[in-house]
Amino acid sequence: MNESRKKDPSEPPSLVRRLRTWFVTGLVVIAPLALTIWIVVQLFLFADGFLGKPIQLFLGKILGIGFFKTQMIHGIGFIALLILILATGWFARQYLGNQAVRLVNAVIERIPLVNKVYIAILQISQAFLGGQRDVFKHAVIIEYPKKHVYSIGFVTQDTRGPAQEALEEDVISVFIPTTPNPTSGYLLFVPKEDVTFIDISVEEALKLIISAGAVIPRPGGGSVEAARRFGFRIRKSPGL
Length: 240
Description:
Layout: H1 15-62, H2 66-70, H3 76-93, H4 95-108, H5 114-129, H6 132-135, E1 138-143, E2 150-157, H7 162-165, E3 171-177, E4 185-191, E5 196-197, H8 202-210, H9 224-230
Antiparallel strand pairs: 1-2, 1-5, 2-3, 3-4
Helix pairs in contact: 1-3, 3-4
């Protein structure tokens, strides 16, 4: 019985293996771009069809503008959506608009099933588009949930009030989000000397959490000054 010949490490890969490598590499490069383009096009078509047709119907048949009776203008719905978003944002910033938003939220939160979906979408939107993103001040690393196991968290505030007064150590409030949904998690009061500075922005830390560690965050964006002010541990590296 002949022994199988061991492959020489210096031997160049076969054509099939090279083709497979090229295919996988090309797929990795093209797939995100193609998916992004497809999503943008679908959003454009959805907005254009959802608002464009009623607007053209209103302008053409109700107001009697002849041009809109015979011509289909693509993009008018998308432009109308942008204007609607801007107008809604302006209105929500006013006192009356703010009260209206609170009333709508209160009504939706009382509707079974719908409230779960709405609250989840609202929290995710706040985390990435504003509001809650401002609550997350700095990304840090702490030893949690046990020794030699580490988690990424977000500093929310320098702990004050009854929580700090009940403890002898000087602690800071750190929110530990869950993966892949960062809108839920745990609030921990951690001694400042047990918090380790990490030089990435809040946005990059969120990407790392949502991707379950598959996305490598870009370095930069962390505040060394804030870490020193709080008394966090800073790993010695060039530039720090």
